[in-house]
């Protein structure tokens, strides 16, 4: 028998599963949310029990997506814990429980004789889920603690890993990783079609979710990762009723006053490194506070404005976050590989767009380190020195 391809394995695992858990990465982007919601809706049409979890709440830019509130921020009660009491020698007269500080005391009164410690045993019930699908997530750490807190379910339940990041670690039992796809949403179109046998699945909501993912990851078909296939996929989604204008409006055209204020600050701080052909800017916690903006409002500025900097091969945006100093890199010139710089700083991503997070260290220190990494990279690439 021929071995099944990852795509065939994915559809057959989905077909036989009853309760499916969908997960995506922390700090979710349009593709993370679009792929989770699109697949959630598709699986619902197949009458599956589905839960969707992302540790961070959906940024307000994406809450227009259909059924956005179904995505929860935590995973609760994935397995029963069972306390067994052997009653073959002693029978139970009364049973009660009380909560004593943080200890649950289960109180059993025997009918005759007494219970022994050996009569007691502990076990686990079955898992609430029989399949986990991780979307748009290069490694399990990017689930932001969901893996650490629930490691047992990742060992016992089959995991399907669907992604397009070149840094993917192939952590799944099935790994449907397509580096040529613009987005995870694009990969899911073929999966949804394969599942669409007896039941019609595609509708305007699912098409809208997947098109939002493709639109987000290609910056509305501007990025160098835009392929003929992605345009064909987008055409197909539009034909299925995807609400493209609504996507564009929410992803790119709707800005709150706080976002505009914040972007003003970032644009005001642009610095040029003409010799090394890059521009950069930064945003501090103070900027956020004074603009009345949230961390999630930072991200769009690099794609929408900084990338238009002339005579630059790449752009960098540093931001002071709760967790550390975050950096985003974008290639303006096709031959720049942002992953190389991001990886040297502990991050990852794609050729055209990559990111990293430096924990510990002031903005000044991190800036100095990052700038020297970029200069080193450009030195080699352009043969300066
Ligand atoms: Mn993606």
Topology diagram in text:
Layout: H1 6-16, E1 19-24, H2 30-45, E2 49-53, E3 71-72, E4 79-85, E5 92-100, E6 103-110, E7 120-127, E8 131-135, H3 146-149, H4 151-156, E9 159-163, E10 174-177, H5 184-195, H6 204-217, H7 228-239, H8 244-253, H9 257-268, E11 271-273, E12 278-283, H10 285-291, H11 300-304, E13 314-320, E14 325-331, H12 338-343, E15 348-349, E16 353-358, H13 363-382
Parallel strand pairs: 1-2, 1-8, 2-3, 8-9, 9-10, 12-13
Antiparallel strand pairs: 4-7, 5-6, 11-12, 13-14, 14-16, 15-16
Bound molecules: manganese (II) ion.
Brief digest:
With 385 residues, the chain is an alpha/beta fold. It is 35% helix and 23% strand. It binds manganese (II) ion.
Give a verbal description of the structure:
This protein is of the alpha/beta class and 385 residues long. It has 3 domains: 6-76 and 128-251, inorganic pyrophosphatase (n-terminal core) (Alpha-Beta Complex), CATH 3.90.1640.10; 79-124, no CATH class; 257-382, Roll (Diaminopimelate Epimerase, Chain A, domain 1), CATH 3.10.310. The chain is 35% helix and 23% strand. The chain contains 13 helices and 16 strands. The protein has a 6-stranded parallel β-sheet with strand order 3-2-1-8-9-10. Strand 15 (348-349) and strand 16 (353-358) form a beta hairpin. The protein is globular. It binds manganese (II) ion (MN). Manganese (II) ion is lined by residues 31, 136, 164, 183-184, 217. The site of manganese (II) ion has 6 residues, from loops.
